[in-house]
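step=encode ok
step=design start
structure_in=
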């Protein structure tokens, strides 16, 4: 969030009168977003996401526990799902799409391939004993840190004034199933809205994480219906832009239908790909997209290694060593198979647009259950919704506060992302502006110019 700003506005969220409520496993907690200011001085407030800080104690007992990772095991042991609802634009974070198992991936990618606060963590050991912990997790709302200006996808805090963050906590049996004999106690949660300030009024494209599903079968065709059209957002058009699309495995709570080593051939419909058995090329591309990598850190080489935030992605951080003699570069530590991967410092003009069912060709040697295609998609607003956004800004007084009075009213203009010239939207063949490349550019409200 700090790629283009020097700091964020941090607003504690409350449930009732408390900003640090106790957690009851198997129950829900709601935080109100109404405390986030719409503006500060002459600057508008844009909500990028919410940081959770969960404190508690994990007790390993009975001599049957297993080592638990902060990044995957702890998160899904505590969180079943999250949802942000009642926003002006609907449900930008939908319970059915943002489960505890997938939140580690969503948080990591949306924060620009970085763990918020959990960059290097050891593991909770398997031995009997009590372990106090503080777990931080970033819940993105619109913001996507893989773009040059990911904050342009964030929406005004004004549009969240009636919204609620609802966290459904996992039942105690979930953690006990991951580490037999384990239990949680003295659990609390803090939620802090993380916002940026900007001297303009924008409407970014609809931005959301969606989970597409299809049943596993012995055949080779994976058919995902209504791709890029399933949504929790109100007032959006069919179809959408896809910048992240991964087929999840069954590792570490990813809820997929197979292990990495069970996928032997893959063909995807984007960029005219040819079906191939070189699955490693898709994984390599996901690593390359993050930019330069760093070496693994070690806290205890004999037993408990700690990892930097980009270690071996998209494998789980506690990656399984490749057995001697194997010729498969893919291991069963693979969290997901990258289909579409966002590059670091990407551009909205180059996003993949989809408006149809998506069919993947895949061959498996084993597997069962339901395929999970975790996707981040951008949506275009309908003209009616765009008009209503302007009305919200004007009627609330925000337009006057930020832009000043305008006798002629206000109007929208497309905000190009290249300040020197809109070179990223020029058709190289004709030299004309390619309108399709601008479909996900943010709109900027300005005082209406005199005729």
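sequence_out=
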């Amino acid at each position: 969030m700090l790629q283009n700003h020097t700091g964020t506005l941090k607003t504690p969220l409350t449930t009732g009168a408390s900003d640090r409520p106790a957690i009851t496993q198997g129950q829900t907690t709601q935080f109100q977003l109404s405390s986030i200011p719409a503006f500060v001085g002459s600057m508008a407030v844009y909500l990028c996401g919410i940081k959770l800080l969960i404190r508690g104690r994990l007790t390993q007992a009975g001599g049957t526990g297993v080592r638990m990772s902060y990044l995957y095991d702890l998160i899904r042991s505590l969180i079943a799902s999250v949802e942000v609802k009642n926003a002006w634009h609907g449900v930008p974070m939908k319970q059915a799409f943002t489960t505890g198992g997938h939140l580690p991936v969503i948080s990591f990618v949306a924060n620009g391939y970085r763990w918020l606060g959990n960059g290097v963590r050891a593991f909770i050991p398997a031995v009997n004993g009590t372990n106090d912990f503080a777990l931080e997790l970033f819940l993105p709302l619109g913001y996507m840190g893989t773009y040059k200006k990911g904050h342009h996808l964030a929406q005004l805090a004004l549009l969240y004034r009636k919204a609620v963050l609802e966290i459904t906590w996992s039942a105690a049996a979930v953690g006990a199933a991951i580490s037999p004999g384990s239990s949680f106690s003295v659990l609390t949660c803090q939620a802090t809205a993380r916002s940026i300030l900007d001297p303009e009024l924008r409407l970014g494209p609809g931005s959301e994480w969606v989970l597409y599903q299809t049943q596993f079968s012995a055949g080779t065709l994976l058919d995902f219906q209504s791709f890029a059209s399933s949504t929790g957002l109100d007032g959006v058009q069919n179809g959408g832009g896809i910048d992240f699309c991964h087929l999840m495995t069954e590792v570490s709570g990813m809820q997929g239908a197979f292990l990495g080593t069970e996928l032997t051939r893959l063909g995807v419909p984007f960029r005219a790909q040819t079906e191939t058995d070189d699955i490693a090329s898709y994984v390599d591309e996901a690593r390359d997209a993050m930019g330069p990598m760093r070496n693994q850190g070690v806290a205890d080489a004999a037993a408990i290694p700690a990892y930097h935030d980009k270690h071996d992605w998209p494998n789980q951080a506690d990656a399984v060593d490749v057995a001697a003699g194997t010729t498969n570069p893919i291991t069963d530590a693979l969290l997901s198979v990258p289909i579409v991967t966002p590059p670091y410092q990407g551009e909205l003009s180059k996003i993949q647009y989809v408006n149809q069912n998506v069919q993947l060709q895949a061959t498996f040697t084993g597997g069962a259950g339901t395929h999970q295609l975790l996707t981040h998609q951008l949506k275009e607003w309908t003209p009616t919704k765009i008009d209503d956004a302007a009305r919200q800004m004007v009627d609330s007084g925000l337009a006057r506060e930020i832009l000043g009075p305008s006798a002629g009213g206000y109007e929208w203009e497309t905000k190009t992302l290249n300040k020197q010239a809109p070179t990223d939207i020029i058709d190289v063949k004709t030299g004309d502006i390619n309108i399709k490349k601008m479909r996900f550019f943010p709109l900027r409200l300005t005082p209406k110019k005199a005729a």
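step=design ok
step=annotate ok -> Residues 383-447 form one domain.
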